[in-house]
Write a structure and sequence with these properties.
Elements lengths: L16 H26 L13 H10 L5 E3 L5 H8 L2 H4 L18 H13 L16 E4 L4 E4 L8 H14 L6 E6 L6 H12 L4 E7 L2 E2 L2 E2 L13 H4 L2 E6 L3 H16 L5 E6 L18 H9 L2 H11 L5 H24 L40 E2 H15 L3 E5 L15 H4 L4 E3 L4 H13 L3 E5 L10 H8 L2 H5 L6 E6 L14 H5 L5 E3 L4 H13 L4 E6 L7 E2 L14 E4 L4 E5 L2 H15 L4 E5 L2 E3 L3 H11 L2 E8 L4 H12 L9 E5 L8 H7 L3 H12 L2
Parallel strand pairs: 1-3, 1-4, 4-5, 5-9, 8-9, 11-12, 11-13, 13-14, 14-16, 15-16, 19-20, 19-22, 22-23
Antiparallel strand pairs: 2-3, 6-7, 10-17, 15-21, 18-20
């Protein structure tokens, strides 16, 4: 391995003494802040600490390269960038001539106040940005009134690249010249999200700057076991974007490279992949002993080249920073650090009651829609103009696009081709700048949607088939779903998923994965059964401030026809509906199984048995009251769904009924579901497994014998 001295790269003329001295001020502030938390870890007052020591010369120029309204997406070791974005230098370091170096002094908060919140965040105190819900730098601080858009990490490294690209998408979409900077470690460049996010940013020429902090080790794995390229920046050419490798220990060289990248981004020339070469001076986290993998002679080179004292010596040698000024500056830094940390140590812990705060952002109460007429079987006719399930969804999309300019639509083949099922018919022709064909990149697309949603857009993402959502699982369950609980920031995205069997599509185009997501707090799960609900629930999902997943059974797309209610037909998420009244037995279904229940109920009626049928419509939020009221009346419950039996949502319905309705039950709660098998292709095989009418009738009759 070649070891580069941090100062061996020749540097062009610096931009001015004040700018260079400001870099040092932030570098020293970050180092002293960091050092205090290393000490707090040793005394047990923080549970974990990821040191930035050795990264300051990379992160601080990045933070200083951003202006008000630009987006900063950080990882563990990016404290310096956070400080550079949060603090107004004129007030943080008064008397040092930094008034022209940062944002106007009336934009950003008082430095003492913001440092107090930051220290409280890192100590898990109630005054922290996330109020104790997130440790260290996993939080977000979206304060557009201060020009600060900071989106913190999740532990799944690489995941934030598409999210940062989504911020860039929002900037480009609204016609601004803002940019997004995202940091990534050398190890995380091996993730799929690195490729998907960077590739989509390149294709769409998004204003994204991806800074690789290459310290030559991913936790304990050396670079030679991570990638075969000579330089990670060489990958840029494969994406058709600019790439550059810079000495990450040289803040002047970093500032110049970042200035070039920012200029390209603001000019609409797309992303830059910037590789900052660093030395590994600390373990992955403090105390994990991973530093032992760095050979002693190599470690000695890195420590001798420590960028903070090296830059101070350089500025003194060049006459930029004299000893007296350095002394005054470092005294001010010591004061800021001491006040922030002593105040945070004395601050109160979070209020324990906050642990139960909502995982959902509050939704506006909709006008109560009129209840549609009860339907009894697939294909029932009614007077007036009928419309199919799929066309009802298309109508909803047209109406919502017309109503709300913040809606954007992303997916594979949804533009000129108008989608695999033609759901987007006419949208691209009318709104080509808002209907965007994407590469085959489910995770990248959902991540971009999340970033755009955080900055004011309402993205809709279409999965070509619901089965493919597994490729975007992480972005949904670990990023989108947890955002509101983590730091009370809404994430209004809608994911449309054509799901289900019965159409001879085989094991990879027929799954019903709604149970995966009903288990994840923070995602709303919607399963329309009728054309009216296809329209009304989609409209409600688009207007909701939370992640909403629509599971649309493909079997229903063109088989269901009905006359839609007049007006908007807006439905309410979280409301089940009694679609057939009865007194002897409750059949609970959703999506296609609602129709199965209705067909079974019609057969039972011929035998004098009155089965009540409930369409859940949404699984999350779950309307327990409607189901419970019915079962209290009938004394018997049969839950039907096409998803697999084990772990299916029917188990949740049954468990809640067993708890709340036990005194009223005259028989055990039963379920009819798909056996724990993949979906076979041949119709004769699939029909053996599908939970059809005959299976429902058999279980219903068995229950009625109790």
């Amino acid at each position: 391995m070649t070891i580069h001295s941090p100062l061996e790269t020749s540097v062009q003329a610096a931009p001015g003494a004040a700018g260079r001295m400001l870099r040092y001020a932030y570098m020293k502030l970050a180092r002293d802040f960091d050092s205090r938390f290393e000490a707090l870890l040793l005394t047990g007052r923080v549970s974990k600490w990821y040191s930035e020591v050795g990264n300051e010369a990379t992160t601080i120029p990045a933070g200083l390269a951003l202006g008000p309204g630009d987006a900063l997406c950080t990882l563990h070791r990016d404290l310096g960038a956070i400080l550079a974005v949060y603090l107004d230098p004129a007030r943080a370091f008064p008397g040092f001539g930094f008034g022209e170096a940062g944002a106007p002094s009336d934009i950003r908060p008082e430095p003492e106040a913001i440092l107090h919140r930051l220290a409280c965040q890192l100590l898990g105190k109630g005054d922290g940005f996330s109020k104790g819900f997130e440790r260290s730098f996993h939080y977000g601080y979206l304060a557009p009134e201060h020009g600060i858009l900071h989106i913190g990490m999740i532990s799944h490294l690489g995941t934030m690249i598409p999210v940062a690209a989504g911020c860039g998408f929002a900037f480009k979409q609204n016609g601004s010249d803002r940019v997004a900077i995202n940091f990534i470690g050398d190890g995380s460049t091996s993730t799929g999200d690195f490729h998907e996010g960077l590739n989509m940013a390149a294709v769409w020429k998004l204003p994204l700057i991806l800074v690789i902090e290459n310290n030559r080790y991913a936790f304990s794995t050396p670079a030679r076991l991570q990638y075969a390229a000579e330089r990670l920046s060489d990958r840029a050419v494969g994406y058709g974007i600019a790439g550059e490798t810079v000495d990450g220990n040289d803040p002047d060289a970093m500032a110049e490279a970042l200035a070039r990248a920012v200029a390209r981004a603001r000019a609409g020339e797309g992303p830059t992949l910037l590789e900052a070469m660093l030395g590994r001076m600390r373990g992955h986290s403090e105390g994990d002993d991973s530093l032992k993998v760095v050979p002693p002679d190599e470690l000695a080179v890195y420590r001798a080249a420590d960028p903070v004292p090296a830059y101070a010596r350089r500025l003194e040698a060049e006459g930029v920073l004299d000893a007296a000024t350095r002394g005054r500056l470092e005294a001010r830094i010591a004061e800021l650090v001491e006040n922030a940390i002593s105040g945070a140590l004395a601050a109160a812990p979070p209020d324990p009651s906050l642990a139960l705060r909502s995982v959902f952002a509050p939704s506006a109460a909709p006008e109560k829609p009129a209840a549609p007429a009860i339907v009894h079987s697939i294909g029932d006719k009614a007077a007036g103009k009928e419309i199919t399930y799929i066309d009802a969804m298309n109508q909803a999309l047209h109406e919502e696009f017309e109503r709300d300019e913040s809606i954007v639509y992303m997916g594979q083949d949804i533009g000129v081709f108008e989608g695999a099922f033609r759901t987007t018919k006419g949208l691209y022709e009318r709104w080509p700048h808002r209907v965007l064909d994407t590469p085959i990149a489910e995770s990248g697309t959902i991540g971009i949607a999340i970033g755009a949603a955080l900055l004011g857009y309402r993205p809709i993402v279409e999965m070509q088939f619901g089965d493919f959502i597994s490729c975007g699982f992480n972005q949904l369950v670990n990023m989108a779903a947890k955002l509101y609980y983590r730091w009370e920031t809404p994430c209004p995205i809608v994911i449309r998923l054509p799901t289900g069997g019965g159409v001879q599509a085989g094991p990879f185009h027929s799954q019903n994965p709604e149970g995966w997501f009903a288990h994840t707090a923070g995602i709303k799960v919607v399963c329309p059964a009728t054309a009216a609900d296809a329209r009304g629930l989609l409209k409600a999902a688009i207007r909701d401030p939370n992640p909403v997943m629509l599971f649309e059974h493909k079997f229903l797309y063109r088989r269901i026809k009905e006359v839609l209610p007049e007006g908007e037909g807006l439905a309410t998420l979280g409301e089940a509906r009694v679609v057939r009244a009865g007194r002897n037995l409750t059949l609970v279904g959703y999506g296609v199984s609602t129709w199965t229940c209705l067909e079974a109920a019609a057969e039972l009626a011929k035998e004098g048995i009155e089965a009540e049928v409930i369409d859940l419509r949404t699984l999350v939020p779950y309307d327990e009251e409607t189901v419970l009221t019915s079962v209290k009346k009938t004394g018997r419950a049969l839950v039907v769904h096409e998803a697999q039996l084990t772990g299916g949502f029917g188990a949740e319905v049954a468990a809640r009924l067993a708890d709340a309705a036990f005194p009223w039950l005259d028989a055990p709660i039963r379920r009819v579901a798909y056996p724990d098998r993949p979906v076979p292709y041949a119709r004769v095989l699939e029909n053996v497994l599908l939970p059809g009418k005959d299976k429902v009738l058999a279980e219903a009759r068995a229950l009625l014998k109790f």
